[in-house]
Amino acid sequence: MSGARTVIRGGLVITAADEVHADVLIEDGRIAALAAHGSTYGESWTADRTIDATGKYVIPGGVDAHTHMELPFGGTFASDTFETGTRAAAWGGTTTIVDFAVQTQGQALRAGLDAWYAKANGNCAVDYAFHMILSDVNEGTLKEMDLLVAEGITSFKLFMAYPGVFYSDDGQILRAMQRSAGNGGLIMMHAENGIAIDVLVEQALAEGRTDPRYHGEVRKVLLEAEATHRAIQLARVAGAPLYVVHVSAEEAVAELAHARDKGLSVFGETCPQYLFLSTDNLAEPDFEGAKYVCSTPLRPREHQAALWRGLRTNDLQVVSTDHCPFCFVGQKELGRGDFSKIPNGLPGVENRMDLLHQAVLDGHISRRRWIEIACATPARMFGLYPRKGTVAPGADADVVIYDPHAEQVISARTHHMNVDYSAYEGKRITGRVDTVLSRGEAVLTEREFTGQAGHGQYVPRGTCQYLA
C-alpha cells in the first residue's frame, strides 16, 4: 500500500513552525506536497485513498525518544514487548520510538546492541531506533562508541544512579564524554547521586520506612540537582554536549537554565508523569503508591509549575515518556515491605500526545509547542529530522489525524499497553487520535488498529542537529 497515493483533505496542518489549512499528498510512503484548501493545484490531485480531516488536526507522528521495551530490571522485565509497546504507541499517535539497548557489565556494546536488534526485528508496528546504555566504560567500549556512531547509534546513556547495575563514576563519565566530543555522539545522563541515595535507602529501611512513598523521600531533589550540576561541569571539561533525561525538579531545571544562559550545549527532557502526577500518588494507601515508583521520582506538586515554565522558555526541550511498564500484580508487588525492591518505571507511551494536547487546552503550552516538544525537537535532537517530526515534502508520511474535540477517559480498561493499571486512571481529557499513517500505511484507521507487527523499520540516526 505504501506505493499508493493518499490525499488528506480539509485538515489544519500543525507543525513546530506553522499552522496552515492545507491538503496533504502522500506518494510512495513520503509526503509529496501540501496545497492550500481549495487551490487548483490541490484540487487536481487524484488518489487511491482520500482521508477527510475536516475539523481535525493533521500533525506529524510523535517521536518518543525514551522508551524501555522488554527492559530487564530488578529481577523481572518490562511488561511491554516491542510488539505490544509499538502497537500502543501507534494508538497514542506516536510513530517512532527510540529505545535503549543495554550493555551488560563485562560484555561488549555490540553484544547488547545485537540483543536489542533481535528483540525488535520483525515485531514493531511503527519505526524504531536505538540509544546505547553504557554500564561499563573501559578502553574497549570507548572504541566501540566510534563504531556505533558510524552505524547510526549516535547517543549513549550513562547513569550516576544504580550503583552495581548501571552506575558510572565521574572518571568513567568524563572519558565517555571526551569520546563523544570527538565522534559527534550525544551523552544522555540519568542525573541522580546514586551513592548518596543508597545510604538514605539503607537508613530508611533500617528505620522501618518501607512504603512506596519513601522511594520519593530518599531520592532527594537536592541529589538530582547536585548530579545535574556535576554532569554539566564534566561535560564542560570534556567539551561535550549533554542531554539530561527525565528532569523532575525545579532545582535541576535551574541548573540547566544556568548552563544554557552561558551558551552551553546542554539539553533537558521531562516526562508526562512529572507534569501531571506528584508525591500525592506515591503516598496512595494499600501499596497503590507502588504503581508510581519511577526514577527520578515523582515530586511534590509545586515542582510542576517550574517544569511547565521550562518547557515554555526552552530550558527543557523534549517531553518523552521513559515508558517502562511493570504490572502491579506480580511485578510492582515484589517491593511489598521494601520499597527498594519495587521495579522502577511507569507506562505512558500511549498517553503522551493526548496529555500534551490537554496541556494546550489548559494553557500551559501552544499548539505548535506541543508538536515541537513531542515531534520535531526529539527528531532533531537525535538525528531523525526532517525524515521524522514534521509534515513537509520529502518527510516520511508519518501523519496523525487528530480530533481535538473528542473526549476520553484514560483507563487501563481501554488502553493498549500490556500493563494492568494506568498511571492516569480516570483522568478526563479532550483530544484523541483518530487515524495514524506510518510511512503512508494506515496503522490506525478511525480508531481501529489496521497495522501489523513487522511494518516498523529500524531507522539509523544522524548526529544531534542542535550542535554547531
Please give a structural write-up.
This protein has 468 residues and is an alpha/beta fold. It has 14 helices and 20 strands. The strands form three sheets. Strands 1, 2, 3, 4, 5, 6, 17, 18, 19 and 20 form a ten-stranded mixed beta sheet that branches. Helix 3 (109-120) links the parallel strand 10 (94-102) and strand 11 (127-133). Helix 5 crosses helix 8. The two termini are 40 Å apart. The mean pLDDT is 97.
Summed up:
The protein is built from 14 helices and 20 strands. It has 468 residues and is α/β, with parallel strands linked by helices.
Characterize the biggest β-sheet: 10 strands, mixed
Total number of helices = 14
Which stretches are poorly predicted, pLDDT < 50 over at least 5 residues? none
Outline: globular
**Mean pLDDT reading:** 97
Query: What's the quaternary structure here?
Result: single chain
Give the fraction of residues assigned to helices.
25-40%
What is the number of strand segments? 20
Radius of gyration using CA atoms only? 21 Å
> Cα distance, first to last residue?
40 Å
Beta content comes to 15-25%
Structural class: alpha/beta
